Amino acid sequence: MHLSKLASLSLLAAVTQAGSFQSLSPALAPRTPSSFTNTNGIVIMCTEANWKGSCITLTVPTNNTCITLPPPFFHNVSSIEPAFGTVCYRYAEANCADPICTSPTGCDMMIQFPGFADLSTQDSNWEKKIGGLECEVDFSSLGI
What we know:
This protein is an alpha+beta fold.
């Protein structure tokens, strides 16, 4: 017991004599939204509700670039989940070329983590209707 106290005091005395501490590495600059422009996100989707049927994990650009869903997922998605930190907007058409929205309840559906295990239960019922996705970094969920 006395030996460990003596060792601690010796270390404290050596540190005090050595002067102030210096950082071993420079401080990292805080991340800003512009530092995320070329990152990719992850989206998991399945052809059946509750993550059943054929499933795929897609790497998607997060710079608002449209991706058309590949077969057999084009107009055939029932479950969808972007990874934490990614937010996506769904489109019915390939290349995100939906016509101008005229719905009184809105046409955009934002999809964030944890996604939807069953798209048929959503107000706008997008089950088996998604043709394209446009994703971006979800800065609010990342605290940025």
